[in-house]
Amino acid sequence: MSAGEKTKAKAEQIVGKAVRKAAHAAGDDTTAAKGAALEARGKGRGTKEKSKDAFKR
Question: Lower Cβ count inside 10 Å, N or C end of the chain?
Fold first, then answer.
């Protein structure tokens, strides 16, 4: 897993969580859902990259 992909995945998780929590606190359900989707995409990307590393060994 390249360092760049790891960084992108972690950044998406962090930004998604921040957006989700801020929007939820403000009562904006649509933006909260978008933040949750971004967070999930980051987790998925991280999982994908980890599985690539497992097969390279």
Answer: C
Amino acid at 38: L
User: Is the Cβ–Cβ distance between 35 and 17 less than 8 Å?
Assistant: yes
Q: What is the reported pTM? A: 0.78
> For position 57, what pLDDT does the model report?
64
pLDDT of 34: 95
Residue 4's nearest CA partner among 47, 35, 49, 43 is: 49
- Between the CA of residue 19 and those of 45, 51, 54, 55, what are the distances in Å? 18, 27, 31, 34
